[in-house]
Known about the structure:
Elements: E1 6-8, E2 11-13, H1 29-35, E3 50-52, E4 63-68, H2 78-91, E5 100-104, H3 108-120, E6 123-128, H4 134-142, E7 146-149, H5 160-173, E8 177-178, H6 187-204, E9 208-214, H7 219-231, E10 236-242, E11 277-281, H8 283-297, H9 303-318, E12 324-329, H10 343-348, H11 357-365, H12 374-377, H13 385-388, H14 393-401
Parallel strand pairs: 4-12, 5-6, 5-8, 6-7, 9-10, 9-12, 10-11
Antiparallel strand pairs: 1-2, 3-4
Helix pairs in contact: 2-3, 2-6, 6-7, 8-9, 8-11, 9-11
Amino acid sequence: MSTTNRTHRGATYPSRAHETNRIDSSHGTKDMLNSRTIPHLLKTVGHTPVVAMRNLTEPGEGKLVVKLESANPGGSLKDRAAWNIIRRAEHEGQLRPGATIIESSSGNFGIALAMIGASRNYRVIAIVDPKITPTNRALFEAFGARVIVVHEKDDSGSYHKTRIALANELHRKIPNSFRPDQCFNLLNGEAHFRCTARELHAQMGDQLSAVVCTVSTGGQLGGISRYFKRHAPRVKIVGVDVRGSTVFGGSPHAYLTPGVGLSWTPDNLRDLAAVDEVYKIDDEDAFVGCRTLVRREGLLAGVSTGGALTVALRLAMRARRGEHIAFLAADRGERYLTTAFDDQWMTERALSLDTSIAGLRGRAGRLSPLSTRPALECANFDLSLAEKLGSPSATVQQRLAG
C-alpha cells in the first residue's frame, strides 16, 4: 500500500492512501498496535458509540439511548464540523500551510479548531466573550490558541454578532488567514448529514423513533433533520432551544445555558420543514438534567446534553415499549465542574440541586412543544446578516447557492 508523500506550496503532508480508523478485532493487541495504528489524531473523529440509559424510564415506556459525541478526540460534537470544514478548505486550497484560522467561538467549536490547529500546524485565533469559562479558556491556551475577548454586546444583548464582525475584520487584515465561519458555513450541517446522522441510523436501524438535538449554529439539528427526512422520514426530529435565545423566535433575554442558542435562525436550519417539533426549555431544565444524568446514569456530560435529555425523557415517557428515543451527549462534563457541577455556583444562581429521578421525570412531564409546525411558526431568518457582518465572500456565495 502506497505511503507516498504529497506536497502543497512547499509543505509536505503524508499521503492519506494508507489511513484507516478501523480496528480488526480478530488481531491481538500487539498486532493492532503494530499494524493497525491510527495514522493521525483526526482520524478518530466520529464513529461514536450509542449507549442505552438504564435508570430514567419505567417499564412500558420508550427506551432512551445516547450517542456519545463526547468521545470525539477534542471532547465534543463540534469536532465533526470543524474537521469537515478544515479538511475541505485544505483540499480546495483555501487553507495553506502556516495559515491562521480565525473563528468566533467561546466553546466547543473553537476548542475543536484549536486541537486541529495544533495537529496540522496552523495558528488559531479564538474570538470569545466575557462569558467564557476559565476551563474553556485554559483549553484554548493548552492547544496554543490565541484568545481575544470582545466586550461589546450586539443589538440582541448577546455577543454573537460583535464577535463575528471582529473575526471577519481580522480575516481581512491578516494575510494567509482562513475563516471557518460556523454560523454561515453550510459545511457545518453537512458534517452531521453525512456522518453523525448516518452513523446513528446504522447503529439503531428500525428501532429508532425520534432524535432530540439542541440548537445553536444549527449544524447538528439541520444536518440530522435533513438526513432522516430523506432516508427515514418516520423518525421524529425534535429541536431544543433555551428561553432567551431566538433561534425559533420570541423575545431575547440573558440565559445561562452554554452551547445552546442564537439571536436568529441560522442558515444551517434553512429547511425547518425537516424538523417536526421544537421546545424551549428553562436554564434549570438543562442544568438539572446534566446533574441528574451523572448521578443516576454515571454519564458526565455538558449542560446542553442535560437540556436534550430532559426533552428526550418527555418523549420516552409518552412512547410505547420498544420505541427508542435518541439524544446526543454533545460534550464532556469536565468542562463544567466549576459551574454546573458546583453546588455553590448553582445555589448562587437559584438553580435547583435536585438530582432525583422523580424530580427530572416531573420536570420532563411538564414540558410541552413550542411548535409542531416550526417551518410555519418559528422562522427567524435574517437573510442579509452574513453580508452585514462582513462574512467571507466564499461562504456568502455558498450560502446563497444553497
